[in-house]
Amino acid sequence: MLSAEEQAHIAQVWDLIAGHEAPFGAELLLRLFTVYPSTKLYFQHLGAFPDEVQLLSHGQRMLQAVGVAVRHLDNLRAALRPLADLHAHVLRVDPANFPLLIQCFQVVLASHLQGEFTVEMQAAWDKFLTGVAIVLTEQHR
Q1: What's the whole-model pTM score?
Q2: What is each CA distance from 115 to 40, 119, 135, in whole angstroms?
Q3: DSSP string covering 21-85, please?
Q4: What is the CA radius of gyration of the chain?
Q5: Residue 110, class by beta-carbon neighbours within 10 Å (0-12 exposed, 13-18 middle, 19+ buried)?
Q6: How far apart are CA 7 and CA 40, in angstroms?
Q7: Alpha carbon distance 60, 21 (integer Å)
């Protein structure tokens, strides 16, 4: 799926994010809710107006899952199976929401990493996150 160069780009970006999962994830959620308000449907446990603590907490969990995927690039299906089952069978997340999340994540990365987030890195992350989304939606069949 991913070339060695793409995997290197993913690891390089993750090294910049690692240790900052909570603020990156909180910003991702806030951007998602602002740009695509319908996605709040899947985060009702956060309330109509989630506070900073809730955003940081849930954002951290989301990005920790991305970290798991980064560490298991060669076997995303096995690494993300519990998360895929949760999203399909318990949370019943509409698969159409994953591309929205990917788009918002790319914007957050670009806004924070700026010049460090090259076109090649963006392309690798887009391919990687699309692969993650595919794995997370496979159980919807």
Answers
A1: 0.90
A2: 31, 9, 30
A3: HHHHHHHHHHHHHHH-GGGGGGGGGG-SS--HHHHHHHHHHHHHHHHHHHHTGGGHHHHHHHHHH
A4: 14
A5: middle
A6: 32
A7: 5
What's the one-letter identity of residue 16?
L
Among 58, 2, 4, smallest CA distance to 28 is for 58
User: Which domains are assigned to the chain?
Assistant: 4-140 (1.10.490.10)
Per-residue pLDDT of the chain (141 residues; tens, 9 = 90+): 799 999 999 999 999 999 999 999 999 999 999 999 988 887 777 766 778 888 899 999 999 999 999 999 999 999 999 988 888 888 788 889 899 999 999 999 999 999 999 999 999 999 999 999 999 998 776
Around Cβ 127, how many Cβ atoms within 10 Å? 16
Amino acid at residue number 41: L
Amino acid identity, residue 135?
Answer: V
